[in-house]
Design a protein that fits this description.
The protein is of the alpha/beta class and 500 residues long. It is built from 19 helices and 17 strands. The strands form 3 sheets. Strands 5-4-1-6-7-8-11-10-9 form a 9-stranded mixed sheet, sandwiched between helices. Strands 14-13-12-15-16-17 form a 6-stranded parallel sheet, with helices on both faces. Strands 2-3 form a two-stranded antiparallel sheet.
């Protein structure tokens, strides 16, 4: 995209791309954030000039923090602007509405929702706070790109303040079907708020379809045009664009780092520690959407029904700590540990074979890459995911291509990767066990052919393609110029995550 002198990119997300921590002397130390979003957007900001707006992660306001933000942004070609939040706002906006209502509802787990009316009031107030900081730091020619479910009200707040800049929104998690969305007490307010954006991006065609269905059901006179990747939706007296843009990873960076000698040696060390067997890998943040207990039950079922695989496979389950102060997450951790103990207690060999290696900690970059390189089979079985980048990271790091990916049909990545991965229903314990058995016995030629196709797709549609396609969709006049991953037709993409 050509750069206009008066046009900048203003990125708005719940968190800034740096974490700020106070040291013993009272000063602030900036730690770079990770993830594909940061990797992809910072080069764009440096090239175009722009601003990243978000919460620092620290409750309250501190004058020294503003100076630290300026210091980080100086010379980088972009600015960092903080949105201060009180401890009470963090409790009600982030832990409350965002993670006790939107997160479970949008992941088809409405029974876990806590529809506290106070959460909605604070959510609106915090979104207004974000909008105020955006208004103070953007000009009429800027493109404002808002990210994720924490900030779905920002556009309506900005429009109320008289901001007429183009505003885009990308939802990183799934968008629910109509029957689920109708359970939200503030469904009309939220759908009207989303319709104030100029471009809305979803991970999959199914998410886009769910949104369009909700608009048609809830907004009288709404019209939808087009059959390509990007549709035109006319509602509430305005027209916006709605598209599917599957997010991805920096494929080349993962591939290069995985090929490093140190990573290769660490991967070989894992195989020396666990000799003469295939390694099955699961890596997840501690969260009830990831399906970890069901996955462990499937592995138990595999060993019970397929005794020939005992001592021939080891399952490494890595769980990254998350939200340990929330009772549901503490209970989940306890359940996982009990299942690991049950499996190992049932099948462990006193001579050395331990069926499940359970790791509960954050991984260094080196360890993460080594686990990916070492794994013969990746078991990625979320109950529901917007995309799931672990699946893509595993494929990018599998440089020998002699391995297999088992993927939940309810992960957003299934729409792109489902033809070459082994798709499973994570609720089907015997079905997942059978998929592991199939992957174990798959001949080398098939494994390599499947992984080669997976890697080619991820390389072609990487995170930089994602950024470029979203920004082009915001300004292009020809909405037909958007190829779908793996050259799927629109109709195929809409239902492709199902294996039938």
């Amino acid at each position: 995209m050509s750069r206009k002198r008066n046009e900048r990119l203003v990125v708005v997300s719940n968190r800034l791309p740096f974490s700020f921590r106070q040291d013993a002397a009272g000063g602030w130390r900036a730690e770079p954030g990770g993830g594909g979003l940061v990797t992809a957007l910072l080069p764009v900001l440096r090239h175009r000039g722009g601003t990243w707006i978000g919460w620092t992660g620290a409750a309250g306001q501190d004058e020294g923090l503003a100076a630290a933000l300026d210091a980080v942004g100086t010379g980088a070609g972009y600015a960092l602007k903080a949105v201060p939040l009180t401890a009470g706002e963090v409790e009600n906006f982030y832990l409350g509405f965002s993670n006790e209502i939107v997160w479970p509802l949008f992941h088809d787990l409405q029974s876990l929702c806590n529809f506290d009316p106070a959460y909605w009031r604070i959510y609106c107030e915090v979104n207004r706070r974000f909008a105020e900081v955006v208004r103070e730091n953007c000009g009429p020619g800027d493109f404002i790109w808002v990210h994720d479910y924490h900030l779905m009200n920002v556009a309506t707040e900005l429009r109320g303040m008289g901001v007429d800049s183009r505003i885009g929104f990308f939802l990183h998690i799934p968008f629910p079907s109509l029957d689920l969305f109708l359970k939200l007490p503030w469904r009309m307010s939220l759908i009207e708020a989303l319709l104030r954006f100029d471009l809305i991006g979803f991970q999959t065609a199914r998410d886009r379809r769910n949104f369009v269905q909700c608009v048609r059901a809830l907004v009288k006179g709404a019209e939808v045009e087009g059959r390509g990747q990007v549709l035109l939706v006319t509602a509430l007296g305005r027209t916006l664009r709605v598209g599917s843009f599957p997010i991805s990873i920096d494929y080349n960076a993962f591939m290069r780092q995985a090929a490093a000698a140190e990573v290769g040696e660490r991967a070989r060390e894992l195989h020396r520690l666990l000799p003469n067997r295939k390694l099955i890998l699961g890596i997840d943040r501690l969260d009830y959407t990831k399906g970890i207990p069901l996955r462990l039950k499937a592995f138990h079922n595999l060993l019970a029904r397929r005794p020939g695989l005992r001592e021939r496979v080891s399952f490494i389950q890595v769980v990254v700590p998350s939200r340990e102060d929330i009772p549901q997450y503490r209970d989940l951790k306890t359940e996982i540990e009990q299942l690991v103990g049950k499996i190992n207690g049932s099948f462990v060999n006193p001579g050395g074979w331990v069926p499940v290696w359970y790791v509960y900690r954050s991984l260094s970059r080196l360890d993460l890459l080594a686990y990916y390189r070492a794994a013969d089979i990746a078991l990625v079985t979320p109950l529901k995911d917007g995309m799931n980048l672990v699946a893509k990271e595993y494929c990018a790091c599998s440089i020998e291509e002699d391995c297999a990916l088992i993927l939940s049909e309810f992960a957003g990545a299934a729409a792109q990767l489902g033809r070459s991965a082994l798709l499973v229903n994570p609720y089907d314990i015997e079905g997942v066990a059978d998929a592991i058995h199939r992957a174990y016995h798959m001949d080398r030629g098939e494994r390599q052919a499947r992984m080669r196709r997976l890697r080619r797709s991820i390389r072609e549609y990487d995170v930089f393609w994602w950024v470029d396609s979203f920004l082009r969709a915001a300004i292009t006049k020809d909405l037909r110029a958007f190829p779908l991953p793996e050259n799927l037709t629109v109709d195929e993409a809409a239902d492709y995550s199902l294996p039938f």
